[in-house]
Design a protein that fits this description.
Blueprint (H helix, E strand, L loop, with lengths): L1 H25 L4 H33 L3 H19 L14 H19 L9 H24 L5 H26 L2
Length: 184
């Protein structure tokens, strides 16, 4: 259970960082926009792991002897990407108007890593549906919080959140690898 909470925390950091940026851009806390952002980000972040999980089920018997390596590489690459992006420019800086289309694109973009992470759910012996609910709920909460913090001038936290999420994903990947190499 702790693995799914850590995974949810790490995956939600992208949405949290983007939400902070959207909150900064909006300058005042707009409850309607915050709820819309949190709902979209939570839904996409919650459902995307299911696609990765189902893909792994279809390929599971063919790759079972290297699945721990694949999970390690996927989580490490996603984590490294998040760490790298934490030092760069923010996507929200390029957005001039926050429309429903923009929010949908951001929800998809921030949840692509969740689809790849869904591949690891069976390696962590997690219930995929419970995991989806927890990931979606934690992302919803972090997105709401991000919008609030951003609107209150907390933009400096944006990159730190993404960095921390990347480190946690790399740590989960290392745990999966060591677990299968040394404790299997």
């Amino acid at each position: 259970m702790i693995e799914v909470i850590l995974l949810a925390f790490a995956l939600s950091m992208d949405a949290f960082a983007v939400s902070i940026g959207l909150g900064v851009k909006n300058k005042c806390f707009d409850k309607t926009l915050a709820l819309k952002v949190a709902l979209l980000f939570g839904l996409f972040q919650g459902f995307m792991p299911l696609f990765g999980y189902l893909a792994n089920l279809g390929l599971g018997s063919f790759i079972s002897f290297i699945d721990h390596w694949i999970a390690f590489v996927l989580l490490s690459v996603i984590g490294a990407k998040m760490v790298y992006e934490s030092f760069g420019e923010n996507t929200e800086d390029e957005i001039s108007i926050i429309t429903n289309r923009v929010l949908l694109i951001l929800a998809i973009a921030t949840s692509i890593d969740a689809m790849a992470a869904g591949f690891t759910l069976n390696l962590l012996a997690l219930n995929p549906f419970l995991s989806m609910i927890i990931i979606g709920l934690i992302t919803y909460i972090f997105s709401l919080l991000g919008m609030y913090i951003g609107s209150r001038g907390g933009g400096y936290l944006e990159n730190k959140a993404e960095f921390l999420g990347g480190i946690v994903l790399i740590g989960i990947g290392i745990k999966i690898l060591f677990q299968h190499l040394f404790w299997a």
